Amino acid sequence: MRSEAYSAIENYLSSKASTQAKRLKGDIAKNNQSLVLSMDDHEEVADEFNGIKLWWASGKHVMKSQSISFNHMTDEKRYYKLTFHKYHRDMILGTYLNHVMKEGNDIKIKNRQRKLYTNNGSYWSHVVFQHPATFQTLAMEPKEKELIIDDLITFSKSGDFYAGIGRAWKRGYLLYGPPGTGKSTMIAAMANLLGYDLYDLELTNVKDNTELRKLLIETSSKSIIVIEDIDCSLDLTGQRRKKREKKEEEEEKDPRQKQQGMEESEGKNSKVTLSGLLNFIDGLWSACGGERLIVFTTNYVEKLDPALVRKGRMDKHIELSYCGFEAFKLLAKNYLKIESHHLFGTICELLKETKITPAEVAEHLMPKTSSGDAELYLKSLIQALELEKEEANLKSEEVARKSEPSLNQYSH
Ligand SMILES: Nc1ncnc2c1ncn2[C@@H]1O[C@H](COP(=O)(O)OP(=O)(O)OP(=O)(O)O)[C@@H](O)[C@H]1O
Question: Where among 111, 137, 155 does a domain terminate?
Answer without folding.
Answer: 111
